[in-house]
Specification:
Layout: E1 2-9, H1 13-24, E2 29-32, H2 39-42, H3 54-57, H4 73-86, E3 91-92, E4 97-103, E5 106-111, E6 115-123, E7 144-145, E8 158-162, H5 166-178, E9 181-185, H6 200-209, E10 214-215, E11 219-223, E12 227-232, E13 235-240, E14 243-246, H7 254-260, E15 286-288, H8 309-325
Length: 326
Amino acid sequence: MKHYDLIIIGAGPTGINIGIAAAKAQLNYLIIEKGVLANSLYHFPTNMTFFSTSKLLEIGDTPFISHYEKPTREEALEYYRRLMQVYKLNIQFYEPVEQVNPAKAGYLVTTNKNTYQAKAIVLATGYYDTPNLLNVPGEDLPKVKHYYDNVHPYIGQEVLVVGARNSAAQVALELWQKGAKVKMLVRGSEISNKVKYWIKPNLENRIKEGSIPTYFNSTIQEILPNEVILNTPEGKLTIANDFVLAMTGYRPDYTFLRKIGIEISEDQAQLPTFNEDTLETNLPNVYLAGVVCAGMETSKLFIENTRDHGEIIIHRILEKQQAVIA
């Protein structure tokens, strides 16, 4: 069994950042990733452009050079590949973590391939891998997607986009522009005010002119192979449908967090318990980092305002080491 000072779960931007900080501190560390490098970003839409500038996305004191002020998904993936190579980061890919259990000198981390021992753990697991489900009959049909990749498969198809925030707005507009027969379903009475200011008027104009028929104050009752049954203010309505794109947001993997013993608040925010100054959770020497710290308030934390998490956590680990030596 291999022993480490630190095991980092997740090789997204936050996990990479903490790995760089650990390497600079000469800690013996390992990053474990269940998928690919920057797994969540890899599964973003292929033509996505960040809302943040490349400068605000920089980590590890390494410049992020992009063709325009706001980088694309491809440029970001190339940037993180370069960081991995420059810092020779120790990462195990395609290795989901199944268990984290207390041990005599820290924790045992069990994956689908190995068991490791570590003095400290960082959970940099994000939230993009766990979508908010609709919880309606038919949601398990192959035509229902909780992630949007590319417009091409939907050209000429009857597509229902569910949601009222940025993702739903962008997806609906792109589908309409490229020739899909797109409709929207919104649980509330209007498009969210949180939609970016340059997107919201465009979408609202398309809705007003009838280019994107939209059902407000409505929900899905059932999804069928070729139709969707809606509950609308006018009553039950059945519409033709080839695909349902549920752009309803994402959440941290609470099942995993609770399984290893992280306490979660009982309110609507469902915040994991951690010290805001050190990022240490209710479990000694287990830390949270990145957007997972925001719980269900997923719009509060991003790459750009969590870039200091690596330094905070590594400083705390070194501080604890020095206290033991003293």
